[in-house]
Amino acid sequence: MKLKLFNTLTRKKEEFIPINKDEVSMYSCGPTVYNYMHIGNLRTFFFEDILLRVLKYDGFNVKYVMNITDIGHLVSDSDEGEDKMEQSAKESGKKVSEIAGYYTDVFKRDVDLLNVIPPLYYPKPTEYIDEQIAMIKCLEEKGFTYVTSDGVYYDTSKFPDYGKMARLDIKGLQEGARIEYSEEKKNITDFALWKFSPKNEKRLSEWNSPWGIGFPGWHIECSAMSKALLGNHIDIHCGGIDHIPVHHTNEIAQSEACNGEKFVNYWLHGEFLDMGNEKMSKSLGNFITMQTLIDKGYSPMDYRYFLLMAHYRKKLKFTFEALDAAASGYKNLSQRILKLKTEIDSGNTFDKSLIETYRERFSAKINDDLNMPEAMSVIWELLKEEKITSADKLELIYEFDKVTGLRLNEIKEEIPSEIPEEIQKLAVKRIDAKKKKDFKLADEIRSLIKEKGYEIADTKDGFTLKKI
Ligand code: AMP
Ligand code: ZN
Question: Which residue minimizes the CA distance to atom 15 of ligand 1?
């Protein structure tokens, strides 16, 4: 079956043809580890996971890289303002490496909970300073750079195709914002490749370079690390849609100007998760993390099921009502799986070609630009199919779950649901109170647990907790 993907470069669904049929190269722009990831960020990592899983399901061997930004991502896209990592470190009185280490661990835990397959490499820009400097030098030698009082800049007017993927109206941008950008920048779209440390101030992290002490700009890390790990010309590059006009546009300008060849064949971008009518974002303060969902009694698979219900190129609005609907969808699916397991010995599928038909239908949906909502409908139809035995259904569903990633082969009698740590602690406190015969306190804690949506029951060995 042919895989078709919507390529942002052409704004068309195109057949995916790898550069090298033995190994597909794929790069995703990962997190900036200065804070927690919210469930909007996780939507983008989930979409990239689905893409990876579909490629694998189709038999491709994928070399997958996702960067973890631990320096250089400024609070604003206009090369001004603080470095997010430095700001977070200063605010908490910690080292940049400590901040990066902590939030990288939380990020890895969250994506693991969501059953996102990790990449082969998670490169960090602080470990690729030489490669970034080499690329800036390459751009300098080819005449694409100029130096200002605060850094080394890329002269976007020198790259004829600048802004092509984003279809930027550069003239319009330039006229519209004449006063808003730094005097020293030659064009509004020019961007920093290397920023100098502020005069008379030592940054928490800074490096020597041929141009002066400072740190790399955010965009150069992806061009340099992608080149180092995957080569000059790669198959697929992904990220959230916000990356189209600036970050990915700049990556193309850097890589193609330096390497003298095409950078990426297929650019894929995931739409945003919104909160109300605004995108979920850390700066707007309207965000929810995976831990918040777990604390409220949802399982990460409830959220994965919720995400599967929307196509990656459509905006998705987050509400708890919609998440509840997804949670009950996942619960239903889990119960169906458990039922199939109990019926496993019943007869043979008479018409084996019917199994192939379902396989083809599922495959057609996932290969049609990752149409997961419709692929899920095929699974539900298969569950209702009377002419296929339970054993064959189960086998096929487990096969499909290599793409959906709902951990269906791990479902046990109890649907996996995490009891929040806070509730577990309260339960232990209640047992202690009972041991001390403080029944008043024990009752109070029981009521508190109930208020928080859980029921505690005593057993001979201790207690059980369940969501009400
Ligand atoms: P950041 O750490 O801010 O660079 O974001 C990590 C990834 O999450 C990027 O690919 C962003 O495009 C993506 N992202 C940010 N906000 C949202 C959102 N509300 N919904 C979906 N993806 C998002
Ligand atoms: Zn990037």
Answer: 41
Ligand nearest to the CA of 44: 1
Phi and psi, residue 152, nearest 5°: -100, 130
Q: Which ligand is nearest to the CA of 67?
A: 2
Identify the helix (H) or strand (E) that includes residue 209.
Answer: none
Pocket of ligand 1 contains residue 272 by CB under 6 Å? yes
How does pLDDT run across 373-422, given as a tens digit for each residue?
999 999 999 999 999 999 999 999 999 999 999 999 999 866 445 778 78
Q: Whose CA is nearest to atom 18 of ligand 1?
A: 40
| Stated pTM of the model | 0.87
The set of long-range contacts for 357-365, using a CB threshold of 8 Å and a minimum separation of 24, is: 358/382, 358/385, 358/388, 358/396, 359/396, 359/399, 360/1, 362/400, 363/1, 363/57, 364/1
N- to C-terminal Cα separation, the chain = 45
CA–CA separation, 260 vs 262, rounded Å?
Answer: 7
Query: Is the minimum distance from the CB of 115 to ligand 1 under 6 angstroms?
Result: no
Q: Which two tokens stand for residue 364?
A: 């057609």
Fold category of 17-274 in CATH: Rossmann fold (3.40.50)
* Range list of H helices, 93-198: 96-113, 129-141, 170-176
**Which token pair is 300?**
């990460």
Q: Which CATH topology does 308-410 take?
A: Four Helix Bundle (Hemerythrin (Met), subunit A) (1.20.120)
Cα–Cα distance for residue pair 117/205, rounded to 1 Å? 31
Residues near ligand 2 ion, CB 5 Å cutoff: 29, 222
The edge-to-edge listing of strands for the beta sheet with 214-216 is 145-147, 151-154, 191-196, 214-216
Q: Whose CA is nearest to atom 23 of ligand 1?
A: 41
pLDDT digits (tens, 9 = 90+) for 209-221: 999 999 999 999 9
**Is 125:67 a contact under the CB 8 Å cutoff?**
yes
* CA atoms of 322 and 405, how far apart (whole Å): 20
Q: What are the boundaries of each domain within the chain? A: 17-274, 308-410, 421-461
In tens, the pLDDT along 66-117 reads 999 998 788 877 677 788 888 888 888 888 899 899 999 999 999 999 999 9
Query: Does the CB atom of residue 41 touch ligand 1 within 6 A?
Result: yes
Cα→Cα distances 226→52, 65, 122, 314, 426, Å: 17, 8, 11, 28, 48
Q: Which ligand 1 atom minimizes the distance to the CA of 241?
A: 12
Ligand nearest to the CA of 223: 2
Go through the chain and tell me how many residues it has.
Answer: 468
Closest to 42 in 3D by CA, of 133, 117, 111, 122: 111
